[in-house]
């Protein structure tokens, strides 16, 4: 398979992600990176005709289910509505044969439509041109539109197309649904209603086809129902030069839909069916047009991101990031979070990790605060699960799950993972037990949101409660160490997951400290500014008692310091004592995780090798706690030991490299981050998109190259454009106002769209303006 990013010309320039040939050995990448969605649902882009090795996925956000007691709750793979069995003169369409020419599959990011076209020659030598199109509507979140067009180029053919709703699917073998009910109304409207086996969520699929050969409508399909399947087959002769077309409109609804609240199943079905009928009456082209308008309005004209680079790919990669940030986010429902693979694959079971708060949320906080608010409200609702987790571990307050599904569920991480190459047993996954920094990450994200948006109502309703209850957790989690005469946090996994059961992971300790400090600040502020809210929280969370503990502990928390000798901060208590080995082979690996071919996870714990950025994230987010010299010393120490086996790593290292004035390296790491999904490695996206890395790409552009940061509630911008870039344009929301930013080699221009006062620091100088600010960037600034 060859990925092509330069096929767009004219208005489509840098908007097209395409593959120009088909390989049945490499299906996963295209399925994931070209996946479609709207935050309500995500549709993996498997081809219409099936191939061995494909993964046909349709996920609806928030519909978690447990297939059996030994499994964790996951997003179930819903019925497939995209498969079509196409036969020409009885021969099944198969583009993997050499008899296919002009094969192009393209995702147009601008209108979020996937198209595929080619000419296929049957075994008897007849040429047939085929074109397929599809979209998942951003205008009506329940709608999937598909269209197939065929032309018999050289001779007449006999055509048969079988299509419908196919629930003979699973999540890698785990079955989440009951058989369900099937019905076809008027030989036309297909209905399948199924229910998840444990969470009892009703899924309703409705599908209708509109088939035509020339001007003749085909409305007497052969109807088939079988186990978990309803299909209609349209058969016809197509004469030479004649065209056949098939439109297929599908709607997907579930009983989790907020608009269905309080309804009985029959009412939901009726409403879903009438939605389908209304959509069918409109037809593919009209539905697509509305969808394209929604993309323009809700995405492209809102975010206005533009990069002028001599590498065209940079612009495409940025758009690709915005595209996936849109399709991954369940912006419609605050009971749902973003999954680590979005809605594009079965990896990580649809669960939310710290990926959201630290990698994805910054984009939404600055670019679309309403969505950020919804994602943080999900964490507020998740307090229920977090309190359960704290209690069952013997702690107080809220201990957020490392992997979250439905908010009330609590911890959803699996317990057993990859094979241990030494023992042959399954490795225990400890993250759900001891990767605990997530709790502080959530509190940190709430603070970021508040500082950037000034959304006081959110804080009063949700934010303070999260910050207080997470601080209560940390206070109960700290362990007194007699030798150190300090509080420690023992037996954790930090961001670097190649070090398990470590004491005092620096990132964890500093973030826990930050979390408690924040709670103390807000305790004081809230008591004075809003006694009513304070009192309510004081009653439920016993804040007066908690504050005494916080006061007592805050200055006694052990915060690892740079060594006098070389300024290196120990990542944890033992990291620096471990063996140093030659990592060249793994630093230059063509795909991640090759180190597991040589070492078990337990063995990695004894080597100075890091899976991903750890201290660097600390330097990035709590930058004022460390001097530049310390950052440089540690970057130089840890970068060579970090093998970036997690996709979360490169973007942080790029931002740090930029902060530390190594622009060529920052740009190189940016390219590598973009290539996590778009690059030549064909298997890496099989389980789905790397959503944190996608959020990281935006961060590299805005926090890295534009040098934007919020520090102590103030905005700063120290632009350093890469040598390849002539211009960068983007927007951010700052305290409720939209700022439009244009950066060139020698100038920074910021426009305050509401003409409200803004304070901005640029390279150490403070500027105040209420409409436009122009700052000349001196040579060497960027
Ligand atoms: C990374 C974690 C991340 C998770 C989900 C793991 O491989 O080490 O930091 O949260 O993937 O993306």
Features:
5-stranded antiparallel β-sheet; 782 residues; alpha+beta; 11-stranded antiparallel β-sheet; single chain; binds beta-D-glucopyranose; Beta-galactosidase, Chain A, domain 5; Glycosyltransferase; 3 domains; globular; Maltose phosphorylase, domain 3
CATH class assignment of the largest domain: Mainly Beta
Largest sheet: 11 strands, antiparallel
Helix fraction bin: 25-40%
CATH domain topology of the largest domain = Beta-galactosidase, Chain A, domain 5
In the CATH hierarchy, the architecture of the largest domain is Distorted Sandwich
Q: What is the number of helical segments per DSSP (H or I, 4+ residues)?
A: 20
Beta fraction of the residues?
15-25%
Domain Glycoside hydrolase family 65 N-terminal: 19-256
GO molecular function, one term: hydrolase activity
InterPro entries: 6-hairpin_glycosidase_sf (IPR008928), 6hp_glycosidase-like_sf (IPR012341), Gal_mutarotase_sf_dom (IPR011013), GH65_N (IPR037018), Glyco_hydro_65_C (IPR005194), Glyco_hydro_65_M (IPR005195), Glyco_hydro_65_N (IPR005196), Malt_Pase/Glycosyl_Hdrlase (IPR017045)
Protein name: Glycosyl hydrolase family 65
